[in-house]
């Protein structure tokens, strides 16, 4: 199964948005990297978005309040931090989550209903959704066998076309779909309307546009086509809709065909980048919009000169921390640790 990515769309609370847009939602408690990791581990979309990062979560036990990584170092603790986090998320009491030793040695046979099998045999069962490694990991974290077997790795992608809503595999089996899954997914990511993404043939000898079907060579000779045969072929191969590919003049990028409304005005994205109210360059504006920023915020928020991090009561950019004598790792390492939810001091000095 292909990994979930930030541009993929996720259904939560009845809304269908890109993962990056959910990360910018007011209900979200974590960054998009954490959402992606949780979805891959089988979390429900709502839980993946709203559950605070338990590595930063303050946990009270025995009348004391500490962060999770501090509890993991407590002499009373008998479980690693990730196991404690999983237990708390699944409703364990803090004291039990901390003091119960995990049974890392799983039993040789597991029973569900009237069936008893080895873990490897359960992993081959038609009802098992994850692979054997994920199944074992879920069981080690305290999942019941039924949950570990049947919880999806990621939510189903639903698509509406011709007034019908189906799962992606069902559309791929529909006779109206003329493309393979990679082409369909790429077109949807590029913003194609679902009906067109499913029904427009990728065959250069059968391109449908303006209600007609012609070869690319014939379309290049059509009076409505404003570009050369070679550029038309390139645009279609790169995911352009045939009508857009033909009618967009040479030198006019996608931003000139993408409209944005802000301050009561509607203009092309490239034109907004030249507006005096825009505080960032076109590339930054385009990136923010892809990540789901609100239009006016994307336009007016100045670009930061680096991520600020406070550790040991000092505040510096990550680049400055990477040059600090306490740093154990370069700038890329510090960025990775930060995205993984490490504590500020741990980001700089390591664990």
Overall average residue pLDDT: 76
N- to C-terminal distance: 32 Å
Summed up, the helix count is: 21
Helix content: 40-55%
List keywords for this structure.
6 domains; 14 strands; two-stranded antiparallel sheet; alpha+beta; disordered N terminus; 21 helices; 351 residues
Explain the layout of strands and helices.
Blueprint: E1 9-12, E2 15-18, H1 19-23, H2 32-40, H3 45-50, E3 58-61, E4 64-67, H4 68-72, H5 81-89, H6 94-99, E5 109-112, E6 115-118, H7 119-124, H8 132-140, H9 145-150, E7 158-161, E8 164-167, H10 168-172, H11 181-189, H12 194-199, E9 207-209, E10 212-214, H13 216-220, H14 229-237, H15 242-247, E11 259-262, E12 265-268, H16 269-273, H17 282-290, H18 295-300, E13 308-311, E14 314-317, H19 318-322, H20 331-339, H21 344-349
Provide an overview of this structure:
With 351 residues, the protein is α+β, with helices and mostly antiparallel strands. It has 6 domains: 9-50, no CATH class; 58-99, no CATH class; 109-150, no CATH class; 158-247, no CATH class; 254-300, no CATH class; 308-349, no CATH class. It contains 21 helices and 14 strands. The protein has helices at 19-23, 32-40, 45-50, 68-72, 81-89, 94-99, 119-124, 132-140, 145-150, 168-172, 181-189, 194-199, 216-220, 229-237, 242-247, 269-273, 282-290, 295-300, 318-322, 331-339, 344-349; strands at 9-12, 15-18, 58-61, 64-67, 109-112, 115-118, 158-161, 164-167, 207-209, 212-214, 259-262, 265-268, 308-311, 314-317. A two-stranded antiparallel ribbon has the order 1-2. A hairpin with a 2-residue loop joins strand 11 and strand 12 (265-268). The longest helix is centred in the N-terminal third of the chain and has 9 residues, at 32-40. The radius of gyration is 25 Å and the shape is flat. It starts with 8 loop residues before the first strand and ends with a helix. Mean pLDDT is 76; it is low at 1-7.
């Amino acid at each position: 199964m292909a990994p979930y990515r930030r541009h993929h769309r996720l259904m939560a609370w009845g809304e269908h948005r890109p993962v990056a847009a959910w990360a910018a939602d007011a209900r979200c408690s974590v960054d998009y990297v954490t959402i992606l990791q949780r979805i891959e581990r089988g979390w429900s979309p709502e839980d993946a978005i709203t559950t605070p990062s338990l590595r930063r979560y303050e946990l009270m036990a025995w009348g004391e309040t500490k962060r999770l990584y501090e509890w993991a170092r407590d002499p009373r603790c008998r479980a690693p931090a990730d196991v404690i986090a999983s237990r708390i998320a699944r409703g364990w009491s803090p004291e039990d989550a901390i003091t119960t030793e995990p049974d890392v040695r799983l039993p040789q046979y597991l029973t569900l209903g009237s069936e008893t099998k080895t873990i490897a045999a359960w992993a081959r069962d038609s009802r098992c959704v994850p692979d054997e490694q994920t199944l074992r990991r879920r069981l080690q974290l305290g999942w019941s066998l039924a949950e570990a077997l049947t919880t999806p790795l990621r939510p189903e992608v639903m698509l509406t076309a011709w007034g019908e809503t189906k799962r992606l595999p069902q559309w791929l089996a529909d006779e109206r779909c003329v493309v393979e899954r990679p082409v369909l997914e790429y077109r949807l990511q590029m913003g194609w309307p679902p009906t067109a993404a499913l029904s427009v043939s990728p065959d250069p000898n059968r391109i449908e546009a303006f209600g007609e079907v012609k070869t690319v060579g014939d379309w290049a000779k059509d009076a409505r086509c404003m570009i050369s045969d070679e550029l038309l072929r390139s645009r279609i191969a790169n995911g352009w809709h045939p009508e857009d590919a033909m009618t967009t003049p040479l030198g006019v990028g996608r931003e000139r065909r993408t409209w944005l409304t802000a301050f009561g005005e509607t203009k092309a994205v490239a034109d907004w980048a030249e507006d005096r109210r825009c505080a960032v360059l076109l590339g930054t504006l385009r990136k923010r919009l892809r990540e789901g920023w609100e239009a006016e915020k994307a336009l007016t928020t100045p670009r930061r000169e680096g991520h600020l991090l406070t550790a040991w009561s000092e505040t510096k950019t990550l680049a400055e921390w990477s040059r600090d004598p306490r740093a154990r790792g370069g700038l890329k390492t510090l960025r990775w640790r930060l995205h993984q939810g490490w504590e500020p001091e741990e980001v700089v000095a390591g664990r």
